[in-house]
Queue: 3 jobs
Job 1
Amino acid sequence: MRWFFIVALALMVTSPCLEANAESMDGWPTVVLPEVATRVRLSNTDVNRLVCEENIKDVVHSKEKGIEVKIAGRDAFIKFTALKKGDQVIYSEAPSEFHVVCGENVYTMVGLPQRVPTQTIRLSSGQKKRIEQNLSLFAGMPLEKKILTLVKQIFTGDIPESYLIRQHGRQLDLFQDLWLSAKREIVVEGEGLAVREYLVSLKAGSEAMRLAEGDFLRKELTTSPLAVALDEPLLEPGEIARLFIVERRTESNEPAWVRKESGHGP
């Protein structure tokens, strides 16, 4: 029998948490897996930090590009050296490769220096350890509590490193008065759970609307739903609501737009 939980997020956390988390959802990866070349954004003005679960043994990079690296146990710090020409300071914008040896794994990153604040990149130990960590996080919990815990973590931005995050950027036109923007998918490997986060906004000319979680139980958005949650049921013009859909996760039950984006379907 299929059943659903409707989660009232307003009773769990406060709105300032939502505003703080929204500023960090920029689409750039902050977790890197071993043996997979990953493009990451780094600050070209401030010191960046790499964090690993074990001691970092080495960071191999092109020293001729003027990059300073310091290793301190489980952390490594990366600084792009600025050039001074007269009164002008020139900051690096050249992509640079970093090969980080941590524990028994090698992590390869292509760092894209940009004028942004300091960045922290976490080096994940891979799928097997992620699954073990996920299982330990939810050990002994009934399904209802797993769902509530998962949605709260994502809503507040307190997402464990062991979760797999896939960024999306597709706008969906499924409703007469609403736009849906697919933001990201968070997968809890080992638990068979996933959450898709959407941003909901009114189309031009639409008046304020009260949203209902059940309106989003559509096959275009989910095929195996366990819960639907909205952070703001009353949507005013110019505002954006966050929608969370929790479901049983398998590649075969992904919505068509996800399969097409990931290359799993037509």
Job 2
Amino acid sequence: MIKKDWTRRDFIKSAGAAGLGAALAPNLTASAEPQRGESAMAAASQKVPIRPFGRSGIEVSILSLGGMFDIPNNQLMLQQALRLGVTYWDTANSYGYGSSEEGIGKFFTKYPDARQSVFLVTKSGRKDPDDLSEHLGLSLKRLNTNTIDLFFMHALSNTRPLTDTVRRWAERAKADGKIRLFGFSTHRNMQSCLQEAAKMEWIDGIMMTFNYRLMHEPEMQAAVAACQAAGIGLTAMKTQGGGQIESGSDQELALGGRFLERGFTPYQAKLKAVWENPAIASICSQMPNMTILMANTAAALDQTRLSATDQRQLIQYAEHTQSGYCGGCGDICESALAGRPPVADVMRYLMYSRSYGDHRRAREHFGRLPAEIRQGLAHADYAQAEARCPRGLPIGRLMHEALTELA
């Protein structure tokens, strides 16, 4: 029976206990206990399930290790990920100013046989083929490998950079054995990016923002279905759906209490909601410590599916708190502003700071915006942008808060 009077203290106390249980027993059931008759050793030997990655013929772990943490000094995380079957490793040329790739390369130097077990992904923010070649060469060197399994053009907001010249570059890189697959990542305007990519036979994979808030929207459902029909492998990121406004509502606490009673945390429930869609090959999650790795792995191993009531309550919660979450549809609000300031990007930086607690990363990203753009954010009239926002976000207030918090 679900408690009706969950308080913040109840929630935090129980969430902590569930997180500890996940770390100690990576095979959760609905009652948060090992399956009857199964030894702890057998549970520990289980591997994260795998799924086909689009039409590639490659199978990947449904949980991907996001490489935006101090990998050089946390080699144990990579070793434990392998043991648990988390063999999809994601990084980028820019993560840690190159240290993320170097950390993975350090691991492959010490454990060269491990490379054969890993589906290795990296990214470049460059758009010109010559620049892509430079970054690819640097990534191969840092990662201590001859081949990248999937090479992404990073953080696209539209598909215009995916030119015929880039297509020919990708085909040459494949022919030379430097990459196996090519695609892109996208944090904004994801739906249109996916729809356009589904028409391009040479796009093998896409990583996009996808979570319980977005997955039920008709535009996103249609975009995912189009990519699935085209055989494009899909990786979900930003799956927690963290917003720029923290909510401590009774509805939020009650939802968390419901999941905790069933034996998993709200964080794990949000992962499971994404895995319900078979079109999603993997979830990329930043897991900078062993507790998060074990908790996420437990969610992947757990065979308990979310009930229809669970799903319905997640949808209701998403609707109830939609004004605290930016869906990345930047073209809608930005087109109403002079100079089209990067509202969606600034919203994402706020999310890094407020939801991830990664203030340094948020400030670094915000600091890279040209001074004239930051000044423009301070003086813009956001009335029309707010009127167009499908989620009703207080864009003006959030932009001014970003200027204060992230400057």
Job 3
Amino acid sequence: MRKSLTKTELIRYQPEIDRIFKQGKSQSAKGLKIIVRKNEIGWSRMIVIPVRHYGTAVERNKIRRQIKEIWRNEKERLVSGYDYAFVVYPGNAYDYNLLKQVVVTLCKKAGVLLSSEASSQLTY
């Protein structure tokens, strides 16, 4: 399986982002929120959205890169066919390993992380 993050796996257009926020289901932890919505295409896509007052541009880009890398490494464990929006809030400075634990935990809470025994399918 290809592990790189391609352009087709990124959500780039505002109507698609609005649809995720209106129709998606969300789970949150301190400083991070995930919104998940089933899409009509066969693969998963993602976007990372730091809120307006999240640090400097360097910090916003760093958190985007970190979450994209976590998602890229964990995407084979996630249910395919969903759109994921990660909203990052200021205040918590996670190191990479703690951020990875938080992202995986949020995916479990949202029900999109595949279990090792059987794959669970969601209907949103």
